[in-house]
Amino acid sequence: MQIAFKSRHQTATDGEEKSRASLVLSQLVLLQSRRKWGIMYMLATVSGLFVPVAGVFPSIEDHGVNSFLTTLLLKSAPLFAATFLIITGMYVLNDLVDADLDKSSGKKRPISSGQVTKAQAHIFVIAT
Description:
Elements: H1 2-33, H2 35-50, H3 53-56, H4 60-63, H5 65-97, H6 99-105, H7 118-127
């Protein structure tokens, strides 16, 4: 009796592990599918930090340019990650809304092709 219980328990655990692995893989597929746009907007955020530097921070000369730029980059690093995640989440949300249209037009995006379920895409959008 205990042996049967263990095998049923083991089967449930295997199913849970596969489900978690499937969820993680789906999230990576979605991130990969829109990575280009996330990087593009993240770089726009980075370049936007350096445009007003001379006019807004005239005391750079007092502290040294290298020290100032290092501090600026370190303190704004979370901004780059946030920009990347927001943009990729926005594009995946758009893919989610347009999934039926994309399927009928033959586009090979992860959601419309069935590579990722709509539930997995919802999780990605909420997480980002």
